[in-house]
Design brief:
- This protein has 438 residues and is α+β, with helices and mostly antiparallel strands.
- It has two domains: 201 residues, no CATH class; 221 residues, Aminoglycoside phosphotransferase (APH), C-terminal lobe (Aminoglycoside 3'-phosphotransferase, Chain: A, domain 2).
- Strands 1-11-12-10-9-8 form a six-stranded mixed β-sheet. A six-stranded antiparallel β-sheet has the order 2-3-4-5-7-6. The protein has a three-stranded antiparallel β-sheet with strand order 13-16-17.
- Strand 4 and strand 5 form a beta hairpin.
- Helix 7 runs antiparallel to helix 8 and helix 8 packs antiparallel against helix 12.
Length: 438
């Protein structure tokens, strides 16, 4: 069912006062400099009684940012076993709801899902919820059934109106027979007052099958690089899987031959990215001629392939290795980007470029020395690309477009690292040197 978020009441306002100091330190809170303005949109009560479960929707405004934030809370007199006590209100503890059994039980009771997954949802034990730690923009909770991990709930911290791609895309892929994605098991939608007071409907969370004994693709690649073990066989398998994903996305959504993303548009986007990047990282001016040569070559291309639905944020951290095969996850894209941008059709080689850049980072993070890392990287890149091109006819003619997409991502990385992780800036700078080598 779709739950309705009502107007904020007095309890919501008092809860927000308790939450304010806690919110600023959350990994998923979007404004880190203390300047955020946080106001109430409303709330929905999922359960009452001894433990009251309420989901607050907040409006967070910062410099050039305005986003909706979801914060589930549990008010209960008993805080035994709670992961975190935020504060107290009216003699009851205020708890982070995301992993609390009362919230999980209420969420499962309210959720919709495919009929084939009804029995799976019914078997899940809310008391088994285990919140995953790490650098995440959402909150993921593992749930068990029959003594084994069976599902993972993603609480979408920045819900947006419309079809969330992390729910919509896996559903479509499974429907066309592609099984390298964790199967969707359920979802919860809500309607809330939008910025203009018009009703907005979107997803609050998504439940999918848990991939057992899975290794994170980036961690796996770093371990191989650190040990000096070839990643080429696994990279080749991943290339085949990514190509099959792109074919399945075309079956599910079609292609968009009339969309305006010809070579000229790609060149314009890359030119804008370079102009933006050089303002933050002045040393990129040494690549001006190299970028200009790529732009000229792009504009000389007669055409580009049709756009299609893509993953949009594909890298090694978005793939899992389990039972001798790869799974692709996290189709949401950048959660703070507008939904239209996250679902916009694009060139398939955008995803290919994302994996190549991720391999570059794995080589640098796990490599023992520059020479060893370089040879490891080249072997892995070649294996991934050759396998992808073998499974995606015609892709071999898109090397210039792929180079442009990889260059675009590397310029973004240079700005990000300069701002947030200066010690890592040499990674994208070395990538630029390779990409723009005459």
């Amino acid at each position: 069912m779709t739950v309705t978020v009502g107007r904020a009441d007095g309890l919501d306002a008092r809860l927000l006062d308790v939450l304010r100091p806690w919110l600023a330190d959350r990994r998923w809170f979007p404004v880190k400099d203390g300047s955020a303005q946080v106001t109430l949109i409303g709330s929905v009560q999922l359960a009452s009684g001894l433990s009251l479960v309420r989901v607050l929707l907040l409006r967070v405004r910062g410099d050039a940012l305005s986003t909706v934030l979801q914060v589930p809370v549990v008010l209960t007199p008993d805080a035994a076993g709670a992961d975190e006590v935020i504060g107290s209100l009216d003699g009851r503890h205020v708890l982070d709801g995301a992993g609390h059994p009362a919230f999980l039980a209420a969420w499962l009771a309210a959720a919709d899902g495919p009929p084939r997954a009804t029995s799976t949802r019914a078997a899940l034990l809310p008391s088994s919820g285990r919140v995953l730690t790490g650098e995440q923009s959402n909150t993921s909770v593992v749930l068990s059934a029959g003594g084994a991990s069976a599902a993972i709930l993603k609480v979408l911290r920045a819900p947006a109106g419309g079809e969330n791609p992390d729910v919509d895309v896996p559903r479509h892929l499974v429907e066309v027979g592609w099984d390298a994605v964790p199967a969707p098991l359920g979802w919860l939608t809500a309607t809330w007052p939008g910025a203009d007071d018009e009703p907005t409907t979107g997803y609050l969370g998504a439940l999918s099958a848990f991939v057992p004994e899975a290794a994170d693709g980036f961690v796996l690649a770093c371990d191989h690089a650190r040990a000096g073990t070839s990643f080429a066989p696994l990279a080749a398998e991943l290339g085949t899987v990514v190509a099959s994903m792109h074919a399945a996305l075309v079956r599910a959504y079609g292609s968009f031959p009339d969309a305006d993303l010809g070579p000229g548009a790609v060149a314009d986007g890359l030119a804008a990215r370079y102009a933006w990047a050089v303002q933050s990282v002045p040393e990129l001016t040494r690549h001006r001629d190299g970028v200009a040569a790529v732009l000229a070559a792009l504009r000389a291309l007669p055409a580009a392939p049709p756009r299609q639905r893509v993953h949009g944020d594909l890298h090694l951290g978005q793939v899992l290795r389990s039972s001798g095969r790869w799974y692709v996850t996290d189709f949401e894209g950048e959660p703070l980007a507008p939904l239209a941008e996250r679902t916009r059709p694009d060139l398939a080689v955008r995803d290919v470029a994302g994996v190549l850049r991720s391999l570059d980072y794995a080589a640098a993070v796990g490599g023992r020395d520059r020479k060893t890392a370089g040879s490891w990287l080249q072997e892995a890149r070649t294996a991934f690309l050759e396998a992808y091109e073998a499974a995606a006819p015609g892709c071999g003619d898109q090397h210039l477009l792929l180079r442009a997409q990889e260059l675009d991502k590397t310029l973004y990385e240079a700005v990000y690292e300069a701002r947030h992780r200066p010690d890592w800036l040499p990674i994208p700078l070395a990538g630029l040197d390779r990409l723009l080598r005459p």
